Amino acid sequence: MFLLIIYVILGFLISLILHECGHLLAARICKVPVSEFGFGWGSKLFGFRLSNLDCVLRLLPVGAYVRMNMTVLQQRPLIQQLSVLGAGVGVNLLLAALSWGTIFSFINLALAIGNMLPLYQHDGWKSGIVICRRILGRTSEVVEWTFTLAGGLIGLAVIAKAVI
Questions:
Q1: pTM to 2 decimal places
Q2: pLDDT digits (tens, 9 = 90+) for 67-121
Q3: 118-to-14, 113, 124, 125, 157 alpha-carbon distances in Å
Q4: 20, 36, 141, 144: which one is catalytic?
Q5: Active site includes 141?
Q6: What is the DSSP string of 2-44?
Q7: Of 92, 98, 128, which Cα lies nearest the Cα of 111?
Q8: Is 106 exposed, middle or buried (0-12, 13-18, 19+ CB in 10 A)?
Q9: How many CA atoms lie within 13 A of 51 on its CB side?
Q10: Are 39 and 17 contacting, i.e. CB atoms less than 8 angstroms apart?
């Protein structure tokens, strides 16, 4: 049982890092500058610079992120914006398919599905906001708040359905 817990934790951490590597690779392909690749939340424990990229390890080993130049990303064609935002989910789906039938596959599938839901600051939400802005030709607080709240309600409904 202890080994299973360790396997799940390591699988989750590896999946998070590879998810963010997908965003990083897509951003580089689309020539969107990336300044930081981080793992964890909270205070910075240590970091190093690798080829114009700050790599940072933070105190709480939950989550990972890629800090990119959002102004440059927003100037890219819609397909490139969605590709960069969806690349992490694509990596998780690929890893799930390659490791099908394992716990690692389940972890990656869960991460992909969770990130596709339009929950605040997840990839699905960011993609939805990009699409709303493109359709309207501008930002709209009313539309973006409505999308954010509706996404939260959809996420709660999905979680409630899964639990009940």
A1: 0.87
A2: 999 999 999 999 999 999 999 999 999 999 999 999 999 999 999 988 887 777 7
A3: 23, 10, 5, 4, 12
A4: 20
A5: no
A6: HHHHHHHHHHHHHHHHHHHHHHHHHHHHTT--EEEEEEEEEEE
A7: 92
A8: middle
A9: 3
A10: yes
